[in-house]
Amino acid sequence: MVGTNASLGGLLELTRPVNALVAGVLTGIGAFVAGGLLAAPAAAAAAVGATAFATAAGNAINDYFDRGIDAINQPDRPIPRGAVSPRAALAFSAALFAGAVLLALTLPALALAIAVVNLLLLIAYTQLFKGLPGVGNAVVAALGGSTFLFGGAAVGDVAAPGVLFVLAALSTFTREVIKDVEDLEGDREEGLNTLPIAIGERPALWVGTACLLVAVLASPLPYLLGALGVTYLLAVLPANVVMLAAAASSFRDPTTGQKRLKYGMFLAAFAFVVGRVALEIPGGI
Q1: CA nearest 135: which of 186, 93, 177, 105?
Q2: Mean pLDDT of all residues in the chain?
Q3: Which candidate, 35, 67, 115, 217, has a CA 20 to 30 Å from the CA of 227?
Q4: How many separate helices (H) and strands (E) can be counted in the chain?
Q5: Do residues 228 and 204 touch, judged by C-beta distance below 8 A?
Q6: Looking at residue 77, what DSSP letter applies?
Q7: Pick from 57-71, 195-209, 219-233, 234-248: least confident
Q8: Can you list the domains of the chain with their CATH numbers?
């Protein structure tokens, strides 16, 4: 029993269920791109479940640590409004982490190592990394990108998923920086030291744009390495255009820029899926 002062709706809300579901889907994409979704369905399913549980647990424990700030800035969240007690939130997070660990223990050594590192980062993020300029963004980016890598490692191939991890991490870092610019005033009032506060808005945006440019330049690697064919290369071009345009627009309108960048990131993940599907079709390219 998680706790007496906890509603089921409040506990579910703590997990950010949509985010947890999306993280699980991204892990599934990693397994699919590696060619193991059908070849090793049990491992792929365990990886998807572990990712969803870990993401949900991380969201819950972040709400536990942020409960003081949320009482002022986000009073409608489950803990401040009394739907879930801090103790219940902590216990619920621990139960979810335990579920993630149990599923990860069924996976190969590399996947297990990735899971352990990610779990430690999720637990330590709010307390250790969130307030460090750029470092918190990098941790979030690594966690987001690693879902693809984890899916590939679960089924025994990290070549294409590894490239997808790098591209996703770099573009996620860019989006996190843009979001910090968007939230600049509020973060300053809360005493946070984000990258835009530490070095200025435009320099921070240039740092993010440089990271995105590296990702775009690296995007042909799966084709050049022979992991994916021409279909992938053609499909990833529109994603690159959308993401670069989003980064440019963020200098004028950070809110619009980060939203467009998110769409571009989804298009990039879709390009990997299309590229893998093309390989599975006889005579595909």
Answers
A1: 177
A2: 90
A3: 115
A4: 15, 0
A5: no
A6: S
A7: 57-71
A8: 6-113 (no CATH), 158-285 (1.20.120)
